[in-house]
Amino acid sequence: MRCSYCHQRGHNRRTCPVLTARMKVRHDDAIAAGHTDTWAIQEYKDRINPKGTKKANQRCGYCGEYGHSRRKCEKLQQDMDWYIMHHNVLVKVAHDYIVSSPVGIGSLFTSTDQRWIEGEYKQIREHLVLTDFEVPLDIKQGEFSIHAVLQNVQSGYKHKMDIRPYVKNPAYKDRWGYAPRMVAASTDIVPSSWVADNLVDIAKAKQLGYFRRVGRKNEDRRSYQFARRDQAKRYLESAEVDTGSWRYREYTNELEKLEPKNIRAKMFEDFKSGE
User: What is the domain extent for residue 43?
Assistant: First the structure.
């Protein structure tokens, strides 16, 4: 056995005396400076009182607070409940957008690409048909993309792209990214199961990167977006709130951008730009 910290044999990083001694120095320096609960102090407490010995010494791998584990974390459950509600409301917004859009299922596109074939670059043209739409699973703030699924009529290969630029401008062509040219718009009926197919439940949410435990601390921690939302709500609901401050304006703006009705209004402006 070789320690990954000091590289000496006979112990591992968790029991390394060199690392423990250095943590103690940082702990003692923080105490001497008058601090009581800094990162260095908590780190050393975790070191000398390993998790699992006492509930009070347990530190949640999700929210970082003491006194509970990830499995019993209230913030994790609250974040998951809010995410599911927020995403599912916006799936319905996306559905309303799609059925109102002049660019729908059955729309035809072409794309030209250069590929290396038989020792030279050749121009390859693809013919694509829009077969479905998907809603991204990220947290949506202000507005969000609606992914169109384009299927190559020859090979069956599928591409995904944001449909909204084509709603704003049917002649849209992205100079740098993948953006085929629309040759014929269509508005075939969206399947009746589309909303249900794109909703997220508890089982699906647990598999998302926001909530799935992978065993790597940096990836298992609570997303900044959830923490920021909590921070904004706490400030705006506190007795110390200053309605004339920049912080008040910033937090108010951030929470308003998360409101589904505001996201809907912003996205439906696309239809005005396409008139």
Answer: 13-71
User: What's the start-to-end Cα distance of the chain, in Å?
Assistant: 70
Residue 235 shares a structural domain with residue 192:
yes
Least confident of 88-92, 176-180, 214-218, 220-224: 176-180
Please check whether residues 25 and 94 belong to one and the same domain.
Answer: no
Q: What's the burial of 95, exposed, middle or buried (CB within 10 Å: 0-12/13-18/19+)?
A: middle
| DSSP code at position 245 | S
Residue 90 located in a structural domain: yes
Tens of pLDDT along 126-176? Answer: 899 999 999 999 999 999 999 999 999 988 999 899 999 999 999 888 766
Question: CA-CA distance, 112 to 147, in Å (whole number)?
Answer: 20
5 and 18 Cβ atoms separated by less than 8 Å = yes
Question: 63 and 99, same structural domain?
Answer: no
User: Do 194 and 161 fall into the same domain?
Assistant: yes
Q: What is the pTM of this model?
A: 0.74
Structure-block tokens of residue 212: 């799935």
